[in-house]
């Protein structure tokens, strides 16, 4: 048995080891996610859901759950018995001691959908945001982009090696949020910073990846890493880092650097004007504004592509007023345009934030809708974790409940 087919492996678990409330949780998530999830799951029975997700087999007229069914819908005691390596922890690391804070050092052996909601609820409770104004519209800039955290957390659950000992750790430190999971990448990645953005999705457990996408938790295109990078950069935040990953563990970090509010305002203005910045635009602009010298070969390496494609994209950015060409001696140097730099100077001069406030509070709806190129979405009741995704579970200190 290979690691990749672990979720589909036959388990000694019975149908009684699965919790009907977890199937209801999936139906609620799918129903609330709208087009992001697979609406057909909401109308299925528990057994039909398990078979549709590929985590249950029918033998002699009886439905037998696979290991994936236990991971998604299992009771805590069933998880301990059939997937003993499955565990997750969230810890706040104190700056003085470097040890977990007594305020949050919790371990869980819960099914994956329940875990995702719990950890997202705790993330929201600790994630402050600052407010910026574009014309008459106010929007919040968080300390960490929630779509980035959600995608990296889902990746840790979906791509971890469940045959290896160890827990998925979410550690909140003064330097950022680190999410680590046992097992290296499913394929060799020599340069994660470049390759992860360019390579096609290759999940260690395709069944679990499909379940998270159909539940509406992650992007259905399977490009979660790209989405995480775009969400961070669009808010003027540092891109996720993967340099700490080894052959034994995948480590993703959301750096805790202050947001560049001027750049966030510029990105909001582009989006509000119908010209949102795509991930390649964000990568190139962030590198150029950070003082990096950008030749065509440098941009090709940055985007994980060849020089011809990089040159075509840079040319399009010039036509869109985002980049300019300088340099001499036959070597092109690409720099952010004067238009971009002027917009950033104007953004710095504008009054920005109020005092930081928790991102979980839905105060933006009190003044104006969030800036978005997409149609506005109705505000979710306070305390809901996933956008329109249902109520968050309360914070718990007991690991098996």
Description:
The protein is an alpha+beta fold. The protein folds into 2 domains: 3-126 and 144-258, Heat Shock Protein 90, CATH 3.30.565; 275-349, Winged helix-like DNA-binding domain superfamily/Winged helix DNA-binding domain (Arc Repressor Mutant, subunit A), CATH 1.10.10.10. Helix content is 37%, strand content 16%. The chain contains 14 helices and 12 strands. It has helices spanning 20-33, 46-52, 67-73, 76-82, 112-126, 146-159, 192-198, 206-214, 224-234, 261-272, 279-289, 296-303, 307-319, 338-349; strands spanning 56-59, 62-65, 88-93, 100-108, 128-134, 137-142, 168-173, 176-182, 249-255, 323-326, 333-336, 357-358. A 5-stranded mixed β-sheet has the order 4-3-7-8-9, covered by helices on one side. A hairpin with a 6-residue loop joins strand 3 and strand 4 (100-108). The chain is elongated. The model is unreliable at 353-401 (pLDDT under 50).
Main sheet summary: 5 strands, mixed
Number of helical regions: 14
Strand order of the largest sheet: 4-3-7-8-9
Ends distance: 32 Å
Helix and strand element order = HHEEHHEEHEEHEEHHHEHHHHEEHE
CATH class of the largest domain: Alpha Beta
**What's the β-strand tally?**
12
How many discrete domains? 2
| Fraction of residues in H or I helices | 25-40%
Low-pLDDT windows of residues: 353-401
Second-tier CATH architecture of the largest domain: 2-Layer Sandwich
Mean pLDDT: 82
* % residues in beta strands: 15-25%
Coarse structural class: alpha+beta
- CATH fold label of the largest domain: Heat Shock Protein 90
């Amino acid at each position: 048995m290979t690691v990749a087919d672990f979720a589909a492996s036959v388990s000694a678990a019975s149908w009684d080891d699965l919790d009907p409330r977890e199937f209801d949780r999936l139906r609620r998530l799918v129903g609330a996610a709208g087009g992001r999830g697979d609406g057909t799951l909401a109308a299925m029975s528990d057994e039909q859901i398990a078979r549709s997700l590929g985590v249950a087999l029918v033998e002699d007229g009886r439905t037998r759950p696979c290991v994936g069914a236990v991971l998604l819908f299992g009771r805590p005691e069933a998880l301990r018995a059939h997937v003993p390596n499955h565990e997750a922890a969230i810890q706040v690391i104190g700056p003085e001691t470097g040890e977990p804070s007594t305020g949050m050092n919790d371990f869980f052996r819960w099914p994956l959908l329940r875990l995702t909601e719990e950890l997202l609820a705790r993330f929201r409770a600790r994630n402050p945001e600052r407010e910026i104004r574009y014309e008459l519209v106010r929007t919040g800039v968080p300390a960490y982009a929630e779509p980035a955290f959600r995608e990296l957390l889902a990746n840790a659950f979906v791509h971890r090696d469940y045959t290896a000992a160890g827990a998925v750790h979410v550690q909140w430190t003064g330097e950022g949020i680190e999410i680590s999971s046992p097992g290296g990448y499913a394929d060799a990645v020599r340069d994660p910073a470049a390759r992860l953005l360019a390579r096609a999705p290759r999940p260690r457990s395709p069944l679990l990846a499909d379940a998270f996408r159909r539940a509406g938790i992650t992007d259905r295109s399977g490009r979660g890493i790209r989405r995480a990078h775009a969400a961070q950069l669009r808010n003027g935040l540092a891109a996720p880092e993967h340099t700490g990953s080894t052959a034994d563990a995948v480590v993703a970090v959301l750096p805790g650097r202050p947001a560049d509010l001027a750049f966030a305002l510029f990105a909001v203005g582009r989006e509000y004007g119908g010209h949102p910045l795509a991930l390649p635009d964000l990568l190139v602009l962030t590198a150029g504004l950070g003082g990096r010298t950008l030749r065509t070969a440098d941009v090709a390496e940055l985007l994980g592509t060849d020089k011809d494609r990089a040159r075509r994209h840079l040319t399009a950015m010039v036509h869109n007023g985002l980049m300019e060409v300088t340099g001499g001696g036959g070597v092109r140097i690409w720099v952010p345009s004067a238009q971009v730099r002027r917009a950033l100077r104007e953004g710095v001069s504008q009054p920005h934030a109020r005092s930081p406030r928790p991102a979980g509070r839905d105060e933006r709806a009190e003044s104006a809708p969030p800036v978005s190129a997409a149609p506005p979405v109705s505000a979710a009741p306070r305390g809901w974790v996933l956008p329109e995704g249902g109520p968050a579970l309360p914070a718990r200190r007991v690991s098996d409940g």
